[in-house]
Amino acid sequence: MSTMFSKTLKKLRAESGISQLQLAERLFVERSTISRWESGNRIPDNRMIARISKLLDADINILLNAAAESDEFPNVIIVDDTKIILKGGIPVLEAVMPNAVITGFTRPSEAVEYAKTNRVALAFLDIELGKTNGLELCSTLLEINPRTNVVFLTSYIGYALDAWSTGACGFMKKPLTYEGVKEQLKKLRYPVWTGDIGK
After folding, report:
1. 199: pLDDT confidence band, cut at 50, 70 and 90?
2. Three-state SS for 3?
């Protein structure tokens, strides 16, 4: 249940003096969509949040922060064109973040499509992804959701300087390790609730 966002939206809508139906009509969505947001069953994407903040004359950061705090089961992706890295990395991420939804991709295009329909809280990206550069993928993901935390994965430390200029918040050498991931989580720009059981 996304209670923080639902309570915030309901409060701001009430203060604006408009009904769920009126808000739905102005956003061009069904009233049931507003109801799902206010009941905590769904969270709108960042573009819709921007429209909501404008309509309610509210600070967008209030809604964005509420949405971030509502991610009880954050979406985490790992993108690497080497399947063995995914096979070894996904169990590590699942151990560190037992409440997260971990999804692996070997194709950057699939990761982009996933990000368009799912709020990605954290992305671990290989820098060399065949024809696609992980640095470019980072930029695309941040265009979709500026609150996505990006951590680069590579075997080549020489990429570090280029990686830092992309808006990423972390850099790790392969392979992923439990302790290494835990350290990176402390450095995220936008905190992610992990459900860590304290291993």
Report:
1. very low
2. helix
Domain boundaries, the chain: 3-69, 75-185
The domain made up of 75-185 has a fold known as Rossmann fold (3.40.50)
Name, in order, each residue with C-beta under 8 angstroms of 87's C-beta and a sequence gap of 6 or more.
Answer: none
Q: What is the DSSP string of 15-50?
A: HHT--HHHHHHHHTS-HHHHHHHHHTS----HHHHH
The tokens describing 54, both together, are 């404008």
Q: What is this structure's pTM? A: 0.66
The size of the chain, in residues, is 199
pLDDT(16) > 90: yes
Fold topology of 3-69: 434 Repressor (Amino-terminal Domain) (1.10.260)
Indicate if the pLDDT at residue 89 is higher than 80: yes
DSSP-assigned letters across all residues of 144-169: H-TT-EEEEEES-GGGHHHHHTTT--
Give Rg (Cα) of the chain: 18
**Backbone φ, ψ for residue 171 (5° rounding):** -150, 125
Measured distance CA(127)–CA(137) in Å, rounded: 9
User: Tokens in use for 190?
Assistant: 């936008």
